[in-house]
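Let us work through a complete example step by step.
Step 1: write down the sequence.
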Amino acid sequence: MPKYQRIVLKLSGESLAGGASFGIDAERLKSLAAEIADVATRGIQIGLVVGGGNFFRGVSAAAMGMDRVTADHMGMLSTVINALALQDALEKAGVPTRVMTAIEMHEVAEPYIRRRAIRHLEKGRIVVFAAGTSNPYFSTDTAATLRALETHADVIAKAPLQHTDAVLYREVSYLEVLSKALRVMDASAVAMCRDNQLPIQVFNLNVYGNIMRMSMGEPIGTLIH
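Step 2: predict the structure and record it as tokens.
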């Protein structure tokens, strides 16, 4: 029996790049889609938020002299590319999927409308939330938290990039994450989760089946609550 009935899964753009440093690796995308589809067939409702770091990283570009607002808008558009790739792969894996964008682009995807997103989830469709919050200075971590809260998700699941010096905590409080500056999510996203009592499950995406294990409540990573 799944522990969570509705989850929002936050993926980094780099997770789609596989072993490369740029773009989308076709085999990695196919494997990830198959794993997510397997979870969806168990009746678990899934929202996805994917970053755009495999195409464009706004903060580093801003540091090189580009206007931060322009850089962030470019980053949002890169998340749409990833969202469309995920949609295609998920539907090939047999799960109906909708891309909803915070920046309207009707020829490409649906605009984000909260009630419509909830209806898609209730009907068993995976919803990929793209283009962040549509506002600069807000990360995709914050966008994922916002969408999780708006759609009444049971948990936000974060699969960060792996660091060799990372320390595994089984459970940790929101306050500890903020006070120790543990780099699992942006501070603003953690604060939003804390204020609304939304648990954060951090886990390793590089082990096949971990999305299912996380959804079933197995202690495979760190629970922030």
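Step 3: interpret the result. The first helix runs from residue 26 to 40.
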